Amino acid sequence: MPQKGYPKVRTGCLTCKKRKVKCDEARPYCNRCIATSRKCDGYSYAPSSHGSKYSWEQLLAPRIQFALGAPGASSTSTDGRAMAYFHATVAKTFSRMLGGTNWAPRLSQMAQSEPAVQHAALAISAMYEQRYEKPLGNFQWPGESKSAIQHYNAAIRCIIAKHQSYSLDTLLLVCAMFVCIEFLRGDAGTAISHIRSGILILKSQQVESELGSIFYHWYALPFVFGIGTISFPLIQRPKYLTNASFKALTQAQEIIDRLAIRALHLGQAGDGYRLGAASDAQVSPMLSHEQHQLQVALHIWWLSFSHLQQSSELSTGTDIRIPLLEMQWLVWKVYISSCLSLRETIYDTYMDYFQRILQNATALGPCKKKGGFTAQPVFDIGMGYFTSVYFVVVSCRHLKMRLTALQMLKVSSQSKEMMWDMAIFYAVGKRLIEIEHGITLTGEAMKEICQSIDPPEFPPDSQRIRGYFIEPGATQKANGDRQDDRRQMLEHKVRFIMRDVENSKTSEHICRISVARA
Question: What is the rounded distance in angstroms from the CA atom of residue 382 to the CA atom of residue 7?
Fold first, then answer.
């Protein structure tokens, strides 16, 4: 009996044609080749029937093979799929933060040629799948996440063994990937330790690196999470604030990130005066001078940013980043002008700024994933939308406006931005509003307030919260509200700080909030 032949393959990638197997024709790389750890040689022509779906940039992009050839790396189909995920998601996220598509193929090539990058990429992919594809399970290192910890440890060993031979970009990339791994683990302390290492690497070198902008962007984390910043290296002041225009949005982002670092140091230095001084105390001249310098720098930043928007240098696809940058500028404008004031009522003079933040957030709404807390989280290593809207929740005392911002967090934002877990901060923001306004925010109450046409009532200064602290660690508890809900609940202890300026008294309001474990 004659052997049954294979049907002739007329379409598909060159590799599948040679093997005479059916190709799934995924672009730009065939999934069948990736799953079997083969090199996909691409396509001999641009497809005529579906070519309109792909840009020339996609069709002409370098073909990156996902055969794991680095020393000591596994060549299993699981690792091949994980590397494909890194190329499709993580590399593009880094490239977006660095302001250009040219970084995506570079990162993928580094993941193929550098063992440390490869192991870190595989660890991120394995952890993301465990963390988000199985939200009802406990996230732990043992068991199903064994491959993640193995690759993480392997990446660390590679760095230790070959530290002197790695280039600056490779060291910074691996360090940044370690930060992302800790973002996924939810370990703020270790993530901040890696950020500090990256900044120290930058300061020890005489040359600049594009990857440095990511670490400047992450510098705010220790301030937000109450982790000591004394050992954190200081960042040099921006050099090009006198330019008539920024050259690109990445430059605008880096400058405002550096100004934010100075602003956070200013606010931290002023906390002793703001929270513990008598009503007739005077702020130090040094802090007042720094505040003025930052206000001038922000004004120059805005002029340069406005010139950039009017220029023809902006490429397509930047419409999302423009309102995000404006939101960040508005936040720091209000924060710098208010952080040395004894009275929280100073924020009431910036209603126009809060309104503008919400307008930008509304414009960005269609770009954000809908579905509230139950939507699948998006891997995002940057910040901007969530933190800006949350600033309105905390600092704006116009009840209707801050409830609008609170609702935006629930329905429009992704569930996690870097280390910011939106469910936790939504609960904190809601409780903060209840304390300051003396109300209980049920669903009906929020709807009634938002529909009301009564003039706004602002809480007195003595009833306003100056700051809060979420104590580290959380208590696990069962969800007693719904028997069919298998999610664990985490109970967090929060300390809200209040201050009576007239009587020079500081008090604490301690409460517990419960959120579902992601």
Answer: 49
Same domain, yes or no: 414 and 300: yes
Query: Which three-class secondary structure state does DSSP give residue 14?
Result: helix
Dist CA 234 CA 373 (whole Å)? 37
Using the CB atoms, write b or e for 239-278: b if 16+ within 10 Å.
eebeeebbebbbbbbbbbbbbbbbbbbbbebbeebbeebe
Which helix or strand (DSSP H or E) is residue 432 part of?
helix 422-437
Q: Is 339 exposed, middle or buried (0-12, 13-18, 19+ CB in 10 A)?
A: buried
Instruction: Report the run of H or E that residue 252 belongs to, with start and end.
Output: helix 249-276
Domain end, chosen from 209, 224, 239, is at 224
State CA 321 to chain mean position distance.
13
Closest by Cα among 270, 324, 334 to 298: 334
Residue tagged 């990429």 (tokens) = 121
User: Cβ-count burial of 122 within 10 angstroms (0-12 exposed, 13-18 middle, 19+ buried)?
Assistant: buried
- List residues bridging with 505 in a β-sheet: 500
What's the distance, Cα to Cα, between the start and end of the chain in Å?
59
Rg (CA), the chain: 26
Q: Under DSSP, is residue 490 helix (H, G, I), strand (E, B) or coil?
A: strand
Give the count of domains, the chain: 2
Amino acid (1-letter code) at residue 256: I
Q: What is the pLDDT of residues 432-445, one digit of tens each?
A: 999 999 988 887 77
pLDDT-derived band of residue 27, with 50, 70 and 90 as boundaries? Answer: low
- The residue to which tokens 């598509």 are assigned: 101
List the one residue out of 182, 328, 174 whose CA is nearest residue 254. Answer: 328
**SS3 assignment, position 516:** strand
- 3 state SS for 280-304: CCCCCHHHHHHHHHHHHHHHHHHHH
pLDDT band at 338 (very low <50, low <70, confident <90, very high): very high
Say what the pLDDT of residue 293 is: 93
Are 213 and 292 in a shared domain?
no
Element (DSSP H or E) covering residue 183: helix 168-185
Does 262 lie in the same domain as 334? yes
Q: Is the pLDDT of residue 412 over 80?
A: no
**Listed range (35-49, 133-147, 270-284, 457-471) with the worst mean pLDDT:** 133-147
- For residue 77, pLDDT over 60 is answered with yes
Q: Which pLDDT band, with edges at 50, 70 and 90, does 60 fall under? A: very low
CA atoms of 193 and 436, how far apart (whole Å): 35
What is the residue range of 76's domain?
Answer: 64-224
HEC letters along 181-248: HHHHHCCHHHHHHHHHHHHHHHHHCCCCCCCHHHHHHHCCHHHHCCCCCCCCCCCCCCCCCCCCCCCC
For residues 179 and 125, membership in a common domain is answered with: yes
**Can you spell out the DSSP letters for 300-364?**
HHHHHHHHHHHSS-PPTT-TTHHHHHHHHHHHHHHHHHHTT-S-GGGGGGGHHHHHHHHHHHHHH
